[in-house]
Each structure stands twice: as C-alpha cells, then as structure tokens.
Amino acid sequence: MSSTLGIAVIGAGKMGSDHVRRIGRTVGGARVVAVADPDGDRAKEVAAGLEGAGAHTDPAAAIAAPGVEAVLIASPGAAHEEAVLHALARELPVLCEKPLTPDPAGALRVMEAELRLGRRLVQVGFMRRFDAEYERLKELLDAGGIGRPLFLHCRHRNASSPAFFTSDMLISDSVVHEVDAARWLLGQEVTAVTVLSPTATAAAPEGVRDPRFVLLETSGGVIVDVEIFVNCGFGYQVQCEAVGEAGTARIGDGHAMVVQSAGRWGGEIDQDFTVRFADAYDRQLRRWVAAAARGRIAGPDVWDGYAAAAVSRAGLTAAHSGTRTAVDLVERPALYH
Amino acid sequence: MSSTLGIAVIGAGKMGSDHVRRIGRTVGGARVVAVADPDGDRAKEVAAGLEGAGAHTDPAAAIAAPGVEAVLIASPGAAHEEAVLHALARELPVLCEKPLTPDPAGALRVMEAELRLGRRLVQVGFMRRFDAEYERLKELLDAGGIGRPLFLHCRHRNASSPAFFTSDMLISDSVVHEVDAARWLLGQEVTAVTVLSPTATAAAPEGVRDPRFVLLETSGGVIVDVEIFVNCGFGYQVQCEAVGEAGTARIGDGHAMVVQSAGRWGGEIDQDFTVRFADAYDRQLRRWVAAAARGRIAGPDVWDGYAAAAVSRAGLTAAHSGTRTAVDLVERPALYH
Amino acid sequence: MSSTLGIAVIGAGKMGSDHVRRIGRTVGGARVVAVADPDGDRAKEVAAGLEGAGAHTDPAAAIAAPGVEAVLIASPGAAHEEAVLHALARELPVLCEKPLTPDPAGALRVMEAELRLGRRLVQVGFMRRFDAEYERLKELLDAGGIGRPLFLHCRHRNASSPAFFTSDMLISDSVVHEVDAARWLLGQEVTAVTVLSPTATAAAPEGVRDPRFVLLETSGGVIVDVEIFVNCGFGYQVQCEAVGEAGTARIGDGHAMVVQSAGRWGGEIDQDFTVRFADAYDRQLRRWVAAAARGRIAGPDVWDGYAAAAVSRAGLTAAHSGTRTAVDLVERPALYH
Amino acid sequence: MSSTLGIAVIGAGKMGSDHVRRIGRTVGGARVVAVADPDGDRAKEVAAGLEGAGAHTDPAAAIAAPGVEAVLIASPGAAHEEAVLHALARELPVLCEKPLTPDPAGALRVMEAELRLGRRLVQVGFMRRFDAEYERLKELLDAGGIGRPLFLHCRHRNASSPAFFTSDMLISDSVVHEVDAARWLLGQEVTAVTVLSPTATAAAPEGVRDPRFVLLETSGGVIVDVEIFVNCGFGYQVQCEAVGEAGTARIGDGHAMVVQSAGRWGGEIDQDFTVRFADAYDRQLRRWVAAAARGRIAGPDVWDGYAAAAVSRAGLTAAHSGTRTAVDLVERPALYH
Q1: How much is the pTM?
Q2: What domains are defined for chain A?
Q3: What ipTM does this complex have?
C-alpha cells in the first residue's frame, strides 16, 4: 500500500471533524485533501491540522479539488442532495451521513443520477450496520437462530436533546435509525406507521412531544415498536429485542463491566452515541475507504436512503394525524436488488 | 393460634387442587372442610386426602357446609358469579381466581351485592401482586425511584397454549394479568385499548392469532404495550420494564443462576406459571387466610375485578375491529376508594 | 391440622425474636409456649406478645415447661451444648442455630448423647441449604449438569462487622457457612485449610484482619476458595461459582430487578442476611416444624455440626500459623450415613 | 500520510500470519516488507500475497532487508532473544509476542542491550492491555472507583489445549497473561507465588495437571487468585473481578447478546482468543505502528517482559515444590520508571 485515498470532507461541524480525526488516527489508507464548510474559518481550522489539505466554503470546489478521489458528506441534511450530485457528476465514491436527503423526492433525484451512471457509488451513513452487536443479531436472524421474526422491540434513548430538536425530529432524525436497522435486520420494507405519544416528560422542552412510541408494520408481517425518548436523563441507549417463532435475542444492554459499590451493583451507561458507536463509526469508515479505493460501496445504498426517507415522511404524517399511515415506495430498480 | 380457618374450595381442577395442596403444606392456620366440583368423583378424590372434609357437587352446598368460614373459588370463570354471590349471602370472605367474572355486567352484580353488605369481602386472585419482583417494582415506583411513569413495556409468553385457547383468550385470559398489574403498579385506570397482530407464528393452532401486541392507554397518560405470545416454544416468561421521567426498571429476567456449558452461558427458563409464581401463590394464600380470619381481604378487590373485565371487554372489541377502543367504567363507589 | 407444635425458644436476642416472629406470621402449625433468656426482662418482653407463653431465665426450665414439644436454640454458641443436651434428655426435636458448638469436642459430646438415643433429633441451622438458589445449584451438581466438580469459588461479604467481631470470627462465624455449603453441595469432607490475608481494609477495626482468603481442600480433590470480607462497605453478598469438568454455574448475583437512572444501570445490593436469606429462614423453619411434628429432622444433622466445628478449628490453626492445616475427623457413625 | 512504515515479520506461523493479515486489512500506515520463517516455503507463501515483500529463512536477514523500519516478532519464545537483539543492533522498534524470553536471564540480556541504547524500543505483546474491558477496569482502579485494591479474582479458560501443552505451560504460557495484567492493573510487582492443583479434569491429556489454582501476592499486599483451566470444554473465557476497599468490578462476562430459545436464556461463549481479543490485537498493532513511526513504544516494555518471566519462573518452582515461592527481581533501572 504505497498510496492513500484522497478524501474531500463536506461539512466541518461535529460529525465532519470527528470523521477527519478518524481518518487521521484509526483509519489507514486514506488522507483528507479538502475540507468544505460555509463557515470558512471553521474549514480552515480543521484543514490546518492536515498536511496538504485545502479549505473551501463551496462544496463543489472541494469536490473538484486536485487529489480528491472520494467524498465524505457530513453537512446538514438539506445540503446533502447538491453535494452528492456534484460527487456523482465526477463519478466519485460517496459516504453520506444520514439522512441521504430529508425527503423522498430528493432521494429519488439522487437515485436517478446514480441510475444514469449505472453503478452504486453512494453509501449512506447508517453506522449501526457496522456495530458488533447489531452484526451478531443480524447473523443470528439470517441463520434462523430464533426462527422467522415476529417482533422487534426497540428502545432509543438520549440523555437530553439539543435546543433545536422538535417533536418531528424524534421521528425523522432519531427513529430513522430504527427504520434502517429494521429494514436491514429483517430484509423487509416498512409498509405502515402509527405514532402514539404518552404525556410528555417534564424534562422535554416546551411543546416537544417526548417520548413517543412508534409502530412500524413490515412487508413480512413483522411489528416493530420503538420507544424514542430523547430527554430520558440517564444516558444514551439503543436496545433491540428480536422475537422469532423459536426464540428471542436482545442486544444493547451494555453490561460489559459490572461494578459493586455503595449498596448498588451495575455500571455506567454511555452518555453519547459517539461513545456507544465509536467502533461502528471506525469500522464503517475503514470498510468504506477500502471499498471506495476500488470504486465500490460497502454498506447501505441510495435505495436504503430513499426508503428511510419515505418511512420517515409517513411517520410524520402519522404523528400529525394520529392515525396509521401507509408507506408508498416506487418500484425498486434492478441496480438495487 | 389454637384454631384454624375452615375453607370451602369450589372447583377441584388443576387450580383448585393446587390450592388444596398449598393449604395443607405451606399455609398454616387453615384447613379445607368442603370441596365442590360438578364432577363428584373428582371432588371426592380431592376431599379424600383431607381429614374431615366433605365432597359436594353443588357449590352452594359446600359453601353452606358446617365449619366453612371462608370460600376459595377456582371453578371456571363462568361459574364465579353464582358462587361469589352465595358466599356473600353468608357474609363469608372469598378468594376468587381471576377473572372475577368474564364480563363487566357480572362484576357489577357482585359489586352491588358487596355494596349492600357495606364491606369488602371478595379478593380476586391476581397473584402477581404478591410476587417479590413485582413488589419491588411497585415499591420503586411508589417511592418515585424512576420518577413519573411514562411507559410499561410488558412481555407475557407461554411455551404453548392448551387446545381450547382462542385468539380472544390471549386478551381475556392472558393480557388481563397485565391489565391488573398495570392498574396496580400505576394506580391509574386503563382508558383505551388497541390491538395489533403480526403474522401468526407457525406454531399457533389453525385460526389462532398468536402472538398479538396490545396497547393500553391510561388515565395518567401512560402507554402500556404488551407482547402476548402463547406459543413461543421456549418457556414461560413475564417481564415488565417501567420507563419513568428519571429512569427505567426491569423485572422478570429470571437470571438467578448462570450456567456455562457446551459453548453457551445462560440458564433455564421456567416452563410454567406454577413454577414462576409458586411463591406468589403461596404468599397470596397466606395473606388472604390471615386477613380472612379477621373478616378482611388483603389484595385486589371487586372494583379491580370489574375494571379488569371492562378493559378485557374493550380489548376484544379492539381486536375484532382493528381500531382503538375506549374503556367505559361506572363511577367508582366510595367503598373501593 | 387441628393442633399445633409447642416450641420452646432458647435465646431472645435478634435471632431468637426473629424466629418467634416467623413462627407467628409465616409458619403455620406451631406456636411458641416458652421463651428463655438470661436477661429475664427480654424474655418477658418477647413472651408478652404471645398468647400463653411463659418467660424463663433458665433454658432447662423453658425446655421442661408444659406443652413444649420441640426446642429452637438461638442463644450464643457457647450455650448451645447444654441446651441441646437438656432437649435430648427429654427426647425433644431441636433446631439449633449454627454453630452447633464452638469446638469439635462439644459437638462430639452432643453426638454421643444422640447416639445413645439411637435417632437423629438435632438439626443445625445452616439455612443456606434452604435457599432457592443454593437448592438449584445443588440439583444441578447432583444431576451432573456441569460434570464432576473441580472448584467452588465463594464470596461472602458483609457491609460491616459488629464491634465484637475478631479476626478469628471471620473464619469461625462467617466462613463456617461456606464450610457447610461446600460439604453439602459436594457431598465431600474438607481435609485441609489454608488461610491468606491481604493488607487489611482501612475500614477494618484496629487489629482485625479483614478481608481474608480461605482455601479448603476436599476428600474428592476439589478446591474451595472463599473470599471473606466483613467490612466491604457496599452490602451483604453471598456468591458461589461451581466449576466442573463440563461447565460452571454461578449463584448469588441477586440481579432480579435492573434499574437505570442517573447515568447508571444496576440495582440494589441487599444490606443484611435477614433480607437475602429471608425466604431460606422461613422455609427452614416450616420444614423443621413439619418434620419435628413427626419426631424427625429435615436438614443438617449433628455430624454436619461436628464437621463444621472441626474445619473451623483447623481454619483457626491455619490462620494463626500461616500454613496449610489438615482436618482430622472421627469415624462417621452409622447413624449419620 | 504519504509513506508507510516498513515492517519485518519474524515467524510466519499462526500468530505471524495473523499479524500480516492485520497489517494489510485493519491497520493503516504500515506495510510488510520482509517475512522470515525457518520453513522457507511458509515464509514465501505468506510473502507472496504482499506486494514487494521478501521471504527469508534467517531472521537477521529479514531484519536487515531494505525498507525495514520496524520488527514484529512472532516466532517461538526460544527464538525471541536473538531476534530482538538483532533489531536493537539496528535501533529498530520491536513488537515482540509474549513471552519476551522464556527465562528471566534472557530478558535481562535484552534489558542490558536496551540500556546501552538508552531508550525503550521493545514492546511486549501483552495484548490484554489494549482490550476495551481491561482498559475500563484499569481506568476505574486508577480513578479510585472501588478504593484501594485487595483482591483480583481471575478466571482463564480454554476449550481445549493443543497436544504439546504441558502442566508447566499452564503457568508459563497461560497464567503469564494474568501476571502481566495484575502488574499493570495494580501498578505493583508480584512477590510470591503458590500453586494448588485439584484432581485433574478427565479431559486433560495423560499426565497434565489441569486445572490449577495459582495465588500471587503483590508488593502492595494484594492477593491475586487465578483459575487456569485449559481443557474446560465450553469455550475461551477471561474474567477478572477486582475487589477494593470500596467495591468490586468484574469484566469478561461477555454477555453482549442474550438469546432465549429452547427453554434456555443466554448466549454463545467465544471459542478462541482470536475472537475474544480480536479488537485488542488490532488496537495493539495500530498503536504500536503509530508509536514505532516516531521511534517509540506504546505498551508493555522490557521490564514488563522481564518481570513476567521472573514470576513465571517462580510459579514453576512453586508448582513443582508445592510451596509458596518468593519472586526475586533485580533493581529496576531508571529507564523503566
């Protein structure tokens, strides 16, 4: 391995600079050659620590910079579509943070661009697929270890939500991870969504419906229930229990070290997804770099990004209307079979 | 303690003869003096093992037998109302297996009889209230240990269901336990029920919708979800996770002994409720005997039996209609406050 | 059951009055008819709550009181021998709190008295044998579930020790429970003892060697290691991991309810043996009452009490000398086979 | 990062080829440029898959090959000393699989060579220090989370041992990992060793004393007990419970995914150290590559290798003699403070 993959990082906020750090420290075979952020100072600051990396305010310019062989998009969701299309125009492999686009229509436009190229270049950053526990659960399900699945019981909890987090974002930003995980674990599409909301927790910001209970129905007759609770106070937690015809399997307890002290047994709960999923982010990036170097992807594709956006959209409708809402998907192109 | 409480046991089937055994072996201060069963031979067989106990085919005769000071009813649900009314006519303390009556109307007639007496003599056999783990969870909730409750996530699984078990009975015979447990744990009434059904398990008898997912909404804005799965194959399991504003608490894992062998760690799952709740049944009976000796009850009362019947009825409507169904309760009489 | 067993309780301290409470509340078929304590006021106080029970300062008088059909001894260990011999002189069934006697010689004298009677009337209060988890472990071992045993890894921890607790008592009063449990679980005698002591914990009273590490070797080549730690600070805990040729089994985690709150998952640790072993004490007493009513015992016998005293004695020698010390036992009389 | 570290791998057996695979797949910034093995065909086979890597039978030749900037030694222990000295002669950073040398004398010769250079270039492959659970335990201990340590209770189990495994190797090859882990976790030296052996398991090869129980005493008064069991049959397992003045902490349960099926709850036990410690091996190599590129080490040093060899030697004496054996260490040179 005498050369390394040149990467343009679009978005130099928390996620973007985390990825830059990862490329430098734990992912071999790659280097950041361009950083773009609308805040030019921030782009410069991040690029300053990198030998030979240029700073940009325009994503298109970063993507077109010399030495760029792949694009990592970590800007806000609304900016994803344009950046992905620029990368596709140059036939560059892309790793795009979720959501691929905030709405199904944008995802369909990306899909059309990729279909014109005739090959899959865009990977969506649903990093749970790279988590060791999720991988074990997936293997178990695929091997029929608990028989045909009937339920997924999911818990998704954050210690607290940022100030800008709305009732809708519990679904579009948080539950969207369970949507992808459920689709991937089951190999089925989501066909309908129902949303229930208990009395909001006292810790929820004024007007925010937190927690919520989201029910997904799938093409294979599985029921997926998700407790989403973004101001639970006690930590970050992602749990999933699959119930099949022949047994159940649960991941996410996080009970690796058991401490006894002061009258209690137990352990610490991770406080942040960057801790809980640190290994998953590393693994996602390493595998993507290795695949991108060969012009391929190694994870969820544009169809997955589109389906997540469509379910997310139906979820918002279900939440607003209080009723069960069907999910409509376009026909799946052969490229994504 | 020089004398013992004389008990008439109505119903000499599995539950009835279990109670007879308990009174003899693990519950002090009581003796069975009359046994009734429509099958006279069975009544005689059970009574034969008891010194000085008479066998009857007519519940009323058993209840009127000399020495009867309290009545334990373990006959089929449809026969409960008549036996309870006979006992109340004689002002005898009653322990009635659940359901108090199969329908809310019957429970209301029992309630009227008790209201005429002006005191509570009837206890309903929701034995989970006497389980050590449920008691710990109740204490924690009452003490505010996890703050105001928002969710109860419940799992109720049987290895297999008897041949006569119908889709309706998943709700009226099984989930009714969660209905009582939720009402008791939360101190709230259930106000609405929704029922979803995934594809039935291959192990379900022809035409039986198993498993199901039952959603209860409560007067305090809590959402209670119940996975009821009566042909899960792997054992008997009752789990409950309470989620509050300040934390969660889970019971029912049953992980007391951890074995490692042949490439696996873990343990056995109880195969039957008589094993899982053996201590709860003992404790229920001991406390009832002690209370009955003083003309009192020590557990769920007729109001609890009525409310469970009303929620159960709404649950069946919800299951048949596929829609959210409200629960209507009469006003709660002062006797039950 | 029209009559109840009349019991004389010798010793009205914490253990004695606990047993009195148990007989009244949770154990049927028995009543206390005499209470003895050197502190006459204490004896009167305890007896006062019991209908028809006399108070005594002399154990012999209590044992000889009218209506006494069985004797429960909960006085200090040094007083056990005399009380047991009085009871045996009257051929009364005995439940004697551990230790049977503080030294092997005393236990041998009790054994001789029982041998003269030709039947076993004395049960020793090693209540762990009645604990549900220990019973499951015993069943597993007896069934060969983990193959032939090779190790028992034991932890025995108290939050803190009473002021009178000495370095020796860690062995003679605490580890003696593991001695009995190991003998019972394995069906083997202990043949040698070694004691190691790490630096004492800062919480240990001046001059008390706490914690200690006690190694028992058995007649079947098993090694039993015991961490005894009586000022561990965090609670009361008794754990045992059996390691066999085909697997391991661990009890005592006490993880029945899992709570998540304030950044931590876990649960409470019992603070006292009366909590941890409440059910075991109840069950021990219920089974002893039932057996005593038929002139029998239902638990560890005088041989078990003697063997425990002999191992305890060897343990003290080992602790004082710092070397491995063999255990010498007399030949086991046929009565105890 | 435009250039990568050139590595000579000494030893192309299981461990050596595993490391080659790791350098290629999961560790960036490095490439293998020379492979040495006494079996020339094996060296060629491993080198064949690597662009520009030469195959050698002589370790010295491989170490002297063009482009070699660091040396990874994975040959049998007896060959380590010579290879390390060759590398030191060229002032190359070294990662040497454990043991550094089989005997303390060899380790002292390596130490002298390094002392002459005046800087630490040799890292010993005790990979547990890079395991996430061990790291958490170390952090907890260092932070005083459970107070001053008093005990480490360790379990080290293999499903089965290779044919060449002797009674001595349970100590020198297996327990040596606990020796290093204990020294590192506690920051203390081991001062004495005692070895007990229960009856051997039926699965042990003829003449092999398996399992054994090894007791280490440390300079800080901590007692470390190790159950080493290399034919336990059920899997690979490394557990450690630290007991301190204010609590305990346990790692190694490996209970990430809980499965319920066929009457049992639980999960799979890893069958091999390459599975259990896969991440630790990756992390060890990544950190070493990063450090070696700057001429440094990032893990256990020659002093650690020497101390482990000295304790291992004392352990063998203790096992053969059946008595407690003191560990003698030379004075620790300033370079290793």
Answers
A1: 0.92
A2: 5-127+279-301 (3.40.50.720), 132-272 (3.30.360.10)
A3: 0.91
